[in-house]
Amino acid sequence: MGKMSEVDMQEYILQLESQLNDQERSEKLQHALFKIASIHHESTDLAPFFQEIHKIVKTLIYAQNFIIAIYDEENQCLKISYSIDEKDVFDSDSRIPLGKGLSSYVIKTRKAQLLDMKKISQLIAKGDIEGVVGSTDFTSWMGSPMISANVIHGLIVIQSYEEDVIYSEEDLTLLNFVAKHIAIAIEDVVNTIQRTESQVKMAKQHRLLESTNADLNQVISRLKSAQTELIQKEKMASLGGLVAGIAHEINTPLGICVTGVSHLQEEFKIVKSAMEANTLTEHKLVDFFEDLAEILTILSTNTQRGAALVNSFKQVAVDQTSNEVRNINLNSYINEVILSLKPTLKRTAIKLEVICTEALSINVDAGAISQILSNLILNSVKHGFDESAKGNILIEAYEKNSNIVIRYRDDGKGIDDEALEKLFDPFYTTKRGTGGSGLGTHLVYNLVTGSLNGKITVKSQLDKGLAYLIKFPII
User: Fold this and answer.
1) pLDDT value at position 144?
2) What is the per-residue pLDDT across 323-344, written as a single tens digit (0 to 9) for each?
3) Is the domain of 32 the same as that of 49?
4) pLDDT of residue 391
5) What pLDDT was estimated at residue 114?
6) Contact (CB, 8 A) for 436 and 382
7) Closest residue by Cα to residue 428 from 452, 413, 444, 450
8) What ranges make up the beta strands (E) of 105-207?
9) Positive or negative CA dihedral for 74, 75, 78, 81?
10) pLDDT per residue over 215-256, tens digit each?
11) I need a surface site. Which of 8, 134, 156, 180 has the fewest CB within 10 A?
């Protein structure tokens, strides 16, 4: 290697410095993101949580001006919950009506925005916004919606008044991550508050609702008992990927129950408001009771499924067939599983069809059938279709040559050959980092081959959906 010129040497040194700076920033970013994800928030008071988030973000980017606003959908306004700003001063109870400002634009578009005065002028010209609420002296502005489970809880804003501090797309990506983590924390607090308020309000209602209130309290109590039992079982389980799978899959029925209770709370508020306003009609009351009966069925079904899953997965863990065998009408049972998933499916535009002989009754591990179908349907919803996309899922079940055959297919996005080969591998997921654990299809494979002593194959092509063929012997 020849001797380097002075210019080449300087360029080489600059490259080394750049690489070292990039590496240092990457390590710093990973450390900060880990700290954000590790923050605990057990209280309904999120102020200390917001302060800690702000402290961590300031180690990564210029965040002297940091605002968190909660979205009040009922009153169509934004409540400033945390605000540190050099020029704009907000009280802790400040409320900004939802209009055509920058924050309102983020809420309405549900997308993170990186703006400066030039882009803002363009938005004003197009009529997307009318102007800026507060100071207009900033040089760079970022806002990201706080969204969890498709519910928007508010937004987080960072702005710079310094000429030499201009935010980048990388900064916006970081802010979006922080916003998602805060949204999860807010959702936990909201759920806690809603449960508490529901218990207080339901105790004061009409006698006809007293028995329902008692039933719901019993369901919640059983859920808590089941959760405690599952946690104890996890502590006693051996280390390994299957234990993580147990924890993941048990959350399915519990999550459905939580969704069902939340839905009932919302329906209850609507009926109560109508009654207080003297606008409650017989039709509305009948509809409420029909929803109530349906959700109680869902809660009862899934608490039983939660308990059955403990025994079912215990057998899978030791590679034995489950002994929870009973006689079921397969058509009715498949529809019962679909009913239990209705709170999740209602938020989608996916149509689900079942084709099965009505008189087909079999002796089978019912918990395994339930878990298999639940995983396949939820995987289709989460991975197979974009948000709000229309689609179809078809489940066919029939008897052939002393075997039960279940054909499952969707017309979603599908997967490529590389992903198809790894589909049943533990911890493989196409959505790493966005909620996918890679355990759903692995557990399905174990249940089919272990609990049902059957076989499962899968076919898929990009943009042509995905199809499973499950076959297992009749007991």
Assistant:
1) 94
2) 578 888 999 888 888 877 776 7
3) no
4) 92
5) 95
6) yes
7) 444
8) 113-115, 140-148, 151-160
9) negative
10) 778 877 776 676 445 434 433 433 343 444 445 556 777 778
11) 8
Helix residue ranges per DSSP H, 39-157? 47-57, 102-109, 117-126
Q: Within this chain, do residues 29 and 51 fall inside the same structural domain, yes or no?
A: no
By three-state DSSP, how is residue 199 classified?
helix
Residues 66, 82 contacting (CB under 8 angstroms): yes
The verdict on residue 254 lying in a domain is yes
Dihedrals phi, psi of 388, to nearest 5 degrees: 70, 5
- Return the closest-CA partner of residue 303 out of 248, 367, 244: 367
Residue 199 lies in a domain: no
CA distance 285 to 274: 10
Positions of the chain with pLDDT under 50: 1, 4, 227-228, 230-246, 311-322, 433, 435-437
249 and 184 housed in the same domain: no
Same domain, 175 and 249: no
Amino acid at 387: E
The pair of three-digit structure tokens given for residue 75, joined into one six-digit string: 């009153």
Six-digit token pair at 148? 């969890």
All residues at 6 or more sequence positions from 126 whose CB lies less than 8 Å from its CB, including other chains? none
Report residue 347 as tokens: 């938020």
pLDDT at site 124: 92
Give me the domain span that covers residue 447: 205-473
Place of tokens 């008692």: 214
Structural domain tally of the chain?
3
| Placement of tokens 């009754």 in the chain | 361
Structure tokens at 373: 């179908």
> Per the domain annotation, does 49 fall within a domain?
yes
Record the tokens describing residue 338, joined without a space.
């679909």
Nearest to 362 by CA among 400, 393, 395, 394: 400
Structure tokens at 71: 């979205």
Structure tokens at 56: 């961590």
Phi then psi for 381, rounded to 5 degrees? -60, -45
The DSSP secondary-structure symbol of 470 reads E
Provide the token pair at 103. Answer: 């924050």
CA neighbor of 360 nearest in space, from 401, 332, 393: 332
Question: Residue 339 has which token pair?
Answer: 């009913």
Inside any domain, residue 396:
yes
Whether residues 248 and 381 fall in one domain: yes
Q: Quick check: helix, strand or coil at residue 147? A: strand
